[in-house]
Amino acid sequence: MNVRAGAICLSVTLGLMLPRLAWAAGPFVTQGGYSNQPIEVVDDADLVPAPIRTPTSRAPRVTHPAPIPSSTMPSESLREPSLPSSMELPPGHEPMEWTPHTWEESLPMEEPAPIESVMAAPCGCVKGCGCIAAYADLLIMRPTVGNLNFVIDGDLVGTPPQSPVGSVESLQLDWDLGVRGGLAFEAKSGWDIDFNYTYLHTNDSRTVAPSNGRVILPRDANQSLTFAEADQASASAGFDYDVYALSFGKWFDPAPGLSLRFSAGPRFVSVDLGMNVDASPIYVDPFLVAQQSRVRVTNQFSGTGLVADGELHWVLGRVVSVFGRFGGGVFYGQYRNDFSEHWDNHTIYDLTRRVNRSIPMIEAAMGISLRHGHWELIGGYEVVSWIDLFERSDADTLLTSTSNLGLDGAFLRLMFVY
């Protein structure tokens, strides 16, 4: 009786509690959170896809994204990704515009710089463009002149008429600084015009003391006359050189890296060479005849001529080039030679000779050029030779002897091109 009553009570109690347990356990079995719905088994294809994070979007990353059905994936043929219609962006976020492009389009494109020609014109400007240039040269040159003998260091031997035996002492003009300045213009056609001025001054002096007895004064007189002697002699010489040059030229390009220029134009030159010889005291056979002897010799030439030359440039790079130049011409002008000799206050000779003459001239130069921007630095070596320019007169026989004038040395040019 008691057992049966206990079983009935347990059944009633379980019947009352089971519905409550089922209602309490239901919220813990759900999809993605709490739910008051009963547990349902769903297929993966029915799950809603999570938001897609595109390169241009700022959508928040999903911690546990659900699988995306293949039917909702964008086609590979589409260049612009799109969001499914069922997808919504969080509040405050908007999709950004996406522009298709290729990697070539993303690279910065720049216009190529023009290639600058390195064919230099005489003023250094680029071939094919007109330009104006100004330049200044520093010259280090030495004139070479004959007939600057002034004394004989030796003895008179033999019976009258005696003959001198010894060494001839002469002057030699020193190396000195000169200047050259000019302006040049080149047209686009390659024709150019150049004007420059050159100036050089130098001198020399020396004193000769006799090594054996007395020095012998040179005489251009007849050898039948007796030579004069002196205890010592000194001499000095001065040289001035002025040239005004104007040339018209044309450039040619016979081959890549080579430029050739032919030019011609008038040129004016003025050359002045003077020499003084002082000796004291003066002896003749062996009597004292004067306390001092002074001889003065001058040579002056002024003339105008036409000079033609050719110049070749070989370009070695964008900065460096080498060049060579050769030319010549003929000058016509007046030559003057003065000769005077005085013993104390007595005039022995005082002669002047004037004559119009034609003087040939040849010149050559070679060097290297460095160019950067508007500036050009040019250095080289040049030689100029004037044929039979100077004379020396024989006062007694009225005969003359001629000698050449040579100039050689280095030059350094700084040029600005605009």
Structural account:
With 418 residues, the protein is mainly β. It has a domain at 133-417: Beta Barrel (Lipocalin), CATH 2.40.128. The chain is 7% helix and 56% strand. The chain has helices at 2-25, 103-106, and strands at residues 131-145, 149-157, 163-170, 176-186, 191-208, 215-216, 229-255, 258-284, 287-290, 293-315, 320-343, 346-372, 375-393, 400-417. A ten-stranded antiparallel beta barrel has the order 1-4-5-7-8-10-11-12-13-14. Residues 23-66, 73-80, 113-124 and 220-224 have low confidence and may be disordered.
What's a quick, concise take on this entry?
With 418 residues, the chain is mainly beta.
Write the layout of secondary structure elements.
Layout: H1 2-25, H2 103-106, E1 131-145, E2 149-157, E3 163-170, E4 176-186, E5 191-208, E6 215-216, E7 229-255, E8 258-284, E9 287-290, E10 293-315, E11 320-343, E12 346-372, E13 375-393, E14 400-417
Antiparallel strand pairs: 1-4, 1-14, 2-3, 2-6, 4-5, 5-7, 6-7, 7-8, 8-9, 8-10, 10-11, 11-12, 12-13, 13-14
Q: SSE string, helix = H, strand = E? A: HHEEEEEEEEEEEEEE
**What is the mean predicted local confidence, pLDDT?**
76
Count the strands?
14
Might you state the CATH topology name of the domain at 133-417? Answer: Lipocalin
The CATH first-level class of the domain at 133-417 comes to Mainly Beta
Helical run tally? 2
The poorly predicted ranges are 23-66, 73-80, 113-124, 220-224
Q: Give a quick account of the main beta sheet: strands, pairing sense, barrel closure.
A: 10 strands, antiparallel, barrel
If strands are numbered along the chain, what order do they take across the biggest sheet?
Answer: 1-4-5-7-8-10-11-12-13-14
* Strand residues, percent: over 45%
Question: What is the radius of gyration computed over CA atoms, rounded to a whole number of angstroms?
Answer: 53 Å
Approximately how much helix is present in the residues?
Answer: under 10%
Structural class: mainly beta
- The CATH architecture of the domain at 133-417 comes to Beta Barrel
Oligomer: single chain
Distance separating the two termini: 134 Å
Question: What is the 3D form?
Answer: elongated
